Amino acid sequence: MSRKTTPSMTMEEMTTQAKAGLMTGVGKSVKHESAEKQVSGEALYIDDRGEFPNQLHVYALMSPHAHANITKLDVTPCYNVPGVRSVITSKDVPGELDIGPLLPGDPMLADGKVVYVGQPVIAVAADSLDNARKGAEAAIVEYERLPAALDVEEALAQELFVTDSHTQKRGDSAAAIANADHVLEGSLHIGGQEHFYLETQVSSVVPTEDGGVIVYCSTQNPTEVQKLVSSVLGVPMHKVLIDMRRMGGGFGGKETQAAGPACIAAVFAIQTGQPVKFRLPRREDMMMTGKRHPFFNQYKVGFDNNGLIEGIDIVVSGNAGHSPDLSRSIVDRAMFHSDNAYFLGNATVTGHCVKTNTASNTAYRGFGGPQGMMTIEHVMDTIAYHLGKDPLDVRKANYYGAKGEGRDETHYYQKVEDNFIHEMTTDLESECDYQARRKAIADFNASSPILKKGISITPVKFGISFTATFLNQAGALVTVYTDGSISLNHGGTEMGQGLNTKVAQIVAETFSVDISTIQVTATNTEKVPNASPTAASSGTDLNGKAAQNAALMIKERMVSFASSHFDVSPEAVVFSNGIVSVGDKKTMTFADFTELCWFNQISLAASGFYRTPKIFYDHEKARGRPFYYFAYGVSCSEVIIDTLTGEYKVLRADILHDVGASLNPAIDVGQVEGGFIQGMGWLTTEELVWNDKGQLMTAGPASYKIPAVADTPEIFNTRLVENRTNPEDTVFHSKAVGEPPFMLAISVWSAIRDAIMSVAEDGEIPHLPSPATPEQVYHTIKQARKGKSAADFSL
Length: 795
What we know:
This protein has 795 residues and is an alpha+beta fold. The chain is built from 19 helices and 29 strands. It folds into three domains: 53-147 and 195-288, Aldehyde oxidase/xanthine dehydrogenase, molybdopterin binding domain (Aldehyde Oxidoreductase, domain 4, 2-Layer Sandwich), CATH 3.30.365; 295-467 and 620-785, Aldehyde oxidase/xanthine dehydrogenase, molybdopterin binding domain (Aldehyde Oxidoreductase, domain 4); 473-611, Aldehyde oxidase/xanthine dehydrogenase, molybdopterin binding domain (Aldehyde Oxidoreductase, domain 4, 2-Layer Sandwich). α9 (327-336) packs parallel to α10, α10 crosses α11 (391-398) and α18 runs parallel beside α19. The radius of gyration is 28 Å and the shape is globular. Keywords: 2Fe-2S, Iron, Iron-sulfur, Metal-binding, Oxidoreductase.
């Protein structure tokens, strides 16, 4: 009763194949599992799903005011628009109205008051998106305007916060600063960033026969969407199924804020009994949803004649928007990364979550880490300019582990282990010929009155783990079928970063089979429940370990069976390149062996689980080990600027990045390069502008500029650190690569500042906010040349 689907092979052929080696396991540059589908257009996203004949489309009417009471709300005229099926307000939600992820503050629809321009007030379901929009615009809504907090500095001064503030302290920073040879203090505005994913927020909801819903949602956090949909519907979570095959980009923007459209569509689906889709048009998406947190950071630093920091006070103030969302965790991470790669022996770091009447800001690649790092990198450059030193020398002098022992503990008391930032910096400095280029740039600037060049090397030390400790867990389901094919499902979500490919490689390596035998199925809350969001760079670390755990359970059963069935030791059962050898008694294909196991009633499915060990953080004591390990990187950027216009070009970028033992070098290089370019956009071209009424004026690609092909450095060298072993027991000793490369782009911002420094007069140190748009660069050049403050050239 054989059901073999592969041609039979001789013993010699099987042995030859096994010796050839697995070509698609870990460490191989396997192409992205959806690459061909994405290039050809066959990859299905939520909006590509076939529509039902009676499907409804949703449009939400947005608030035109930053802060106002709703004095009149009449939706009767909406029903006069042809095609309108239903209209809902906050009063029509059957369950809980608030959909805040951790703390309340995010009503699904405005409830008597609006708190930012773009807040959904009512939602209309109609037979087309156009009719739904016309129906929403027909509503009669009147407002009583209230004072709005729009400026983060003013809100900070008034102590308008969405959560409690937090302080981390090591040593006595005040005394160290007072006794230092040099003291500098200042502040830095750091702009936000729009996620600008190719696929905007979208959900498609189908009602089920038992009063529940199936939600096809573009989300990084299926479990959170499941929880909130069940909450607004007032039904148990088992009535809600979330299905997520792939996203057209996420970058953190779909960790919490995918829930709003899903919840609204679900309410309509239950109310009408019809399938409902809610897809935000680009303008509405940008106005309605949050961004990367803009930060206003302040510092006071004391240092010696060599630039060594002796004491520092840092205050990081994240613009949370109108509600908490994830701001507490994001500001915490900014605080954790206020040291970047530098030892701060006497440091006080304070974090505020400032409340303003804007969309509630949310997760974004780096999750506050980039905003924290920017301040200390600004400080390093400023110290160097003050002392007349090369900024790289100041950076190296302040590295963890430099200048003797005892400089290996963070300001939150975590040991910095396996630190090789010194080695990486030395390697990159040599590889990119930094010293010779710096001299050549000085010569160029001396002879070029208009065009000026700058160069900078900056490091990255990024902690890997969710700072909310309980989220560091994952599950997976692995099923082996009798023909040797394998179905893999895990709690992570694929947003283009190659997570499914890497996890499939891990399972392929465990069974020693080709990756073509593995099918990764859509993330599904019925298959893997209670999953953590795919965020914090931990997707592969967590889900890869869970999948490996499941695969090892099945493999151990198979080995135990073979050992007993053929009367050999377990060590004699060897899986190799699709072949299973049982000592000298039997050699067969993996498919044949699988079928044999099934005939002998061996379970071939398993649910795996993983939780990250060792990590903890005592928030009250402000100390602990919030990160399992650190990932390191170093980058060198060279720029040229036109001092007459402020325009600039990145001429060259050299990157050295640590990924441990890479699971997939091709995907990792892509992540490093993509992260760098996205970070470069954040620091240069991507400017968010609000008017004095709190309305986002850059709500589309006509005014909001993400990096394009022409912005890519003319010379772009990327190398992964090779032959390094992660000291922690990560999956095959790999390291996370999603977020750390983003911060490598700080070298671009520092290089622009370095170029401006070449025109500074009378010891003026240029103050360059981010993003460093050409306009901002132009005004900073004027400031540096005339020795005036930035206020004299405000935009």
